[in-house]
Each structure stands twice: as structure tokens, then as C-alpha cells.
Amino acid sequence: MKENEVIKDIKKQKMVLYAEKEDGTYGSVESGSYLIENLLDDFWYKKRHLEQTLRQKLMKGEISPIHYFMVLEDLTPSELASRAGLGTGKVKKHLQMKHFENIKVSELKRYASVFNIPVANLFQVVISSQDSNIKYHFYNEDENSKEQFTTQQHPTDNPYIIITKASEL
User: Fold this and answer.
1) What is 113-155 written as a DSSP string?
2) In terms of C-beta density within 10 A (0-12 exposed, 13-18 middle, 19 or more buried), how is residue 29 classed?
3) Can you tell me the distance from the alpha carbon of 42 to that of 127, in angstroms, rounded to the nearest whole number?
4) Which of 125 and 81 is assigned the larger pLDDT?
5) Which terminal residue of the chain, N or C, has fewer Cβ atoms less than 10 Å from its own Cβ?
6) Do 35 and 52 form a contact (C-beta atoms < 8 A)?
7) If we measure between CA atoms, which residue out of 18, 61, 80, 47 comes closest to residue 155?
8) C-beta separation of 125 from 164 below 8 A
9) How far apart are CA 37 and CA 17, in angstroms?
């Protein structure tokens, strides 16, 4: 790539590219990212919509938690099987609620490890009143702390999933 071919007018996020200069040498050129400027907002909108749609299906019992997290992590059944050390056929079964009901705890631990979540989060949807500043730990050992939280749990149509709502008092 030549220096004059590098897009330079996008200011949202700068990046450094290495390009051929006019004198034939290579050097760094500061540029803006075309993808950030033109596609990132659309990506986050679609990702948020996908998560909301999957969450509704999960709470209705239409998909299993394994399916929910697999799609959010952008994995295929064979990739998930490989990472969890399980057979692809078994993973495909666990994507359906009727087979998820018979899953072993040892298999849940493998899935949770792949998704980098505690096993308990396979059975709950956590909602925080903080929206973008989600706090995942609500236990405070310091009795004198002024931070106080309340947690409420509500059932869903899926007998294996609850909604846990945590908020500050």
C-alpha cells in the first residue's frame, strides 16, 4: 500500500499503518479506521438485537443456555465441541432444551469454562440497574461499607432459567 492510498480523514479512532512512502521507503502513517467510522455502530446495534432476541428465546424455553452462549460467543457447534472436549453430536443435542435437561454437571463445567462464566450463570439472566456499569459482585464483606445492594429473582417460562435483578439501594 502506498502512503497516498491510506485514508487519513477519519478522526474517531486513529490507527497506524505501514505504507510505502514516495521515496520508496516504508514508514508509519497515521490514519483513521474505515470500519470504525462506517460499520461499528451498525455492528453493535445488530449484536444488541441478537442478544435480546436470544434472551427472549432462552426465557421462553425455545433454546438452551448452551445455544444462547454459543451464538453470543460466535462459535459453531464443532468449535464449541472441540473447546469443551465433547463430541459434536452431544453439543448439538445440548443446544435443544429437551436434551439440556439431561446434561451432566461435569459437562456444564466444561461449557462454563469455554464461555468464561460461572456454572450458575448458565441458569440465570442477570440484569443490573446500572445498565452500562454492570457490577457482577454484590457481596460486600465490609459491614461498615455504605454500598448496599438488593437482589430479586423472578421465574421465566423456561423452568431452568431465572431472572436475577440486582440494583443499588
Assistant:
1) HHHTS-GGGGGEEEEETTTTS---------TT-S--EEEEEEE
2) buried
3) 24
4) 81
5) C
6) no
7) 61
8) yes
9) 16
Position of cell 448458565? 122
30 beta partners: 16
Q: Which three cell numbers stand for residue 87?
A: 463430541
What kind and span of H or E run contains 30? strand 26-32
- AA identity, residue 15: M
Q: What is the pLDDT of residue 120?
A: 92
What is the number of residues in the chain? 169
C-alpha–C-alpha distance, residues 161 and 18, integer Å: 50
pLDDT in tens, 34-91: 566 666 778 888 989 999 999 999 999 999 999 999 999 999 999 999 999 999 999 9
Give the DSSP H/E element, type plus range, for residue 62: none
Residue 2 is predicted with a pLDDT of 62
Nearest of 98, 101, 161, 169 to residue 130 by alpha carbon: 169
